[in-house]
Amino acid sequence: MYFDKLHVPLITILATFQAVGFLQAEKLPARPNVLFIAIDDMNDWTGFLGGHPQAQTPQMDRLAKKGVNFANAHCSAPGCSPSRNALLYGVEPYKSGLYAFYDQDKFSKSQLEDYTSLPEFFKNNGYATFGSGKIHHRRNPTPVEWTEFYDHKAEKRNPMIFDDSGYRQGKSSKMNFKPTLNPLEDHNDYKNASFGTEILSREHAKPFFLAVGIVKPHLAFVAPKQFFDLYPDPVKPPRIRVKDHEDIPAVGRAMAKVKDDKRFKSDSAWNEVRRAYLACISWADHNVGRLIDALEASPYADNTVVVLWSDHGFHLGEKESLP
Ligand SMILES: [Ca+2]
Q1: For the segment 138-160, what is each residue's pLDDT rounded down to a tens digit?
Q2: Distance of CA 20 to CAs 23, 52, 192, 193, Å?
Q3: How far is the CA of 298 from the centre of ligand 1 (A)?
Q4: How far does residue 80's CA lie from ligand 1's centre (Å)?
Q5: Per residue in 305-314, pLDDT tens?
Q6: Hey, how many other C-beta atoms are within 10 angstroms of the C-beta on 281?
Q7: Percent of the chain beyond pLDDT 70?
Q8: Residue 285 half-sphere exposure toward CB, CA atoms < 13 A
Q9: Beta-carbon neighbour count of residue 205 at 10 Å?
């Protein structure tokens, strides 16, 4: 079905770090801390969801083992902004109208006043709220929502150096599927996760809501080389039916990125694209692991609820499309 995209990509794990996770929730304080990890464009190619037999996600797998894995969760719309708005405002985009990708420009004032976002709700109810990375889609952080928000763009950024291997369409920064040779610390996701680990190392007088938005595996599929090296070459392709787009309704066909599929086929690049996607998932997993380690080492290990989710899935040639 076309709506593969909707069926599995919203991956949510609820876990506490007490012995048996969710079953211990009744022992949590009335106002537990929340560690809310958003991952961008991650489908079910993870160990715990089993969507790709070679996916390596040991950190998310260990989190899943401690909590509840919602394997039949659905996102409201297969796109960053409407899906995130559904989750962050608690209302489906086909009811709220919050579809636009550049929220602040395109949402009307009344639209935003009608709804309270999740961080704003926590902040209004006595929590300290901390954020970094991609939580909303392109909505600038506001003091209404955040006690403190880390913006990596405020820091000097070292230029990325790419390995010769992998694939890239011309000089496109988006259609880049190459390993990076920079130290891990140079990457934005590392910096955003580091903000999270720093918050977890602080003493907090109030309960906290900590949101960390990890952007990979979103395009470009670039990640440190050590995560590409985890994977054989070639990687196993997904199951793709002949004429796979024929069961898609017209609106779905209009959204399918058939041109990308044709280009990757003519460049014999699909293997490189899929391998790079898997590398990016393992890179995201590494940063999730840093957050889990920091939480486990903190005084908040037993009074924090962890939520891990992805805004929607991704096609890697299925339905003759990317995404
Ligand atoms: Ca997304």
Answers
A1: 778 889 999 999 988 888 899 99
A2: 6, 27, 29, 26
A3: 30
A4: 4
A5: 999 999 999 9
A6: 30
A7: 90
A8: 26
A9: 7
| Burial of residue 156 (number of CB atoms within 10 Å: 0-12, 13-18, 19+) | exposed
Using omega within 30 degrees of 0 as the cis cutoff, is the peptide bond preceding 234 cis?
Answer: yes
For residue 88 the two structure tokens come to 């962050």
146 Cα to the center of ligand 1, angstroms: 22
| Pair of tokens at residue 290 | 């840093």
- For the chain, which domains are there? 4-310 (3.40.720.10)
176 CA from centroid of ligand 1 (Å): 17
* 160 φψ region: left (φ > 0), alpha (ψ -120 to 50), beta (else): beta
DSSP-H helix ranges across 210-302: 225-228, 250-255, 258-266, 270-296
Residues designated as active site: 80, 137
- Between CA 183 and CA 192 the distance in angstroms is 15
Q: What is the pTM of this model?
A: 0.91
What is the pairing mode between strands 208-214 and 128-133?
parallel
For the stretch 274-298, pLDDT in tens is 999 999 999 999 999 999 999 999 9
> Given this model, what pLDDT does residue 16 score?
47
